[in-house]
Amino acid sequence: MFLTIVSFIVLLLILIFVHELGHFLAAKFLGVRVERFSLGFPPKIYSRKYGDTEYQLCWLPLGGYVKLLGEEPGAEISEEDQKVSFSHKPAWVKIAICFAGPFFNIVFAFLALWILIMVMGFQHLPPVVGKLPEDGPAYAAGIRAGDVILSLDGREIKYFDEVTDYPEKTGGKPITIVIDRQGQTLSMAVTPQSKEGKDILGSSETYWSLGLRPSSTPRIAKVVKGKSADLAGIKSGDLVTSIDSKPISDWADLVEAIQGPEESRNSETGVPLKPLNFELLRDGQKITLEVLPNLVPSQNLDGKTVYNAMIGVSNKPDIVTERVGPISALGSAATESWNIIKLTYRTLVKLIQNKISPKIMGGPILIAEAAGSKIREGLADFVALMAIISVNLAIINLVPLPILDGGQILFFCVEAIRRKPLSLRFKEVCQTVGIFALLALMVMVFYNDIARIVVRKTSPPVAQEQIAE
User: Fold this and answer.
1) Most Cβ neighbours (<10 Å): which of 61, 167, 245, 421?
2) pTM as predicted
3) Cβ burial, residue 167 (10 Å; 0-12/13-18/19+)
4) Which residue has better confidence, 313 or 402?
């Protein structure tokens, strides 16, 4: 809990600082006096004045602000101060200052990803074939689990994601795949299969598939304390060889043995639960353990709570690291940043269109849980999370809601077209509406966060009956 709280506060303070720094530097550069730069909201912890600006740190780290001279509606500004007053600047200056905050959040995400890619490189799976669906084109062509893919249409393959991406480039044309099977080189022609599916936001998409899956050894890398596997005695490093006498050769086998086939997963009631007999290899010795899965809730895009059988374990597949230089990392960081921006924007649009349930939205509690989880996994995962949330913060702030940067930008755009400011009364009404809308949003995301916690603490009635039986 302590680590979760600290990581949450650190994450928020960094992102808020970056956002407000954008407003601050833009104001300074464009000749507007900054009266106060605040991290957090009162009560105040510390403050110090340098030049014209008071810098302060406050107790509530859920936001921050930059107070500009002449920013308050109707404020009286002396003739001498009008040249450094926000309200006396042209509309384009006001727009630039408002836009700078979200822009700095996007720049921060890009720089964080750039450094991360340079330091960590890209993580890939080796091109080793795992368990294949028997109705897929690769299986029909004779490819089997354990085969190593050497090339596609004469192009050397180093990583499995190259195999996944290639069919889209060919437009469904037959592909010549060269494999290594226990030292023997074989060549096979595989025609991709057109499939219908859904993307991460539930939109229908058509894609080309070879029916290939990467290999993943069913070795336990992590056991969650207090969950079924831990209580049964499973340990990190154990190799699962069979479940209920059914051989397990791939992690996909293990998942199917616990959760059932894919079509039976994500049930609103959960699958029937029964003890599973695990046969393991630990330090060369065979061990048999009985494990009773738990039903773990999650939320789908419709906002419904669905359940999957889990035992609290994860694996760590064999990873191949691709090192990249600063220039290559620069392009990759730009691509990744753009992908996050597009995904955030699409999610926001689908929420507005009611194609995604608002129940998926999370607030401070969800962010805190994510921060605590990622910092435990490592600094790299924590930095990646910061980059994603930083982009989210930027996009949300550009929504044309009066109290947000996007709303202010809209006001100043109208001001530029009209060539005169909007009436003070109109702005006050819009600000009031904006405040109530933001408060309603905060209440909703807090409710969603609390509802998730409640759901996690309770099992569906059907599942309880099944366990009792």
Assistant:
1) 167
2) 0.83
3) buried
4) 313
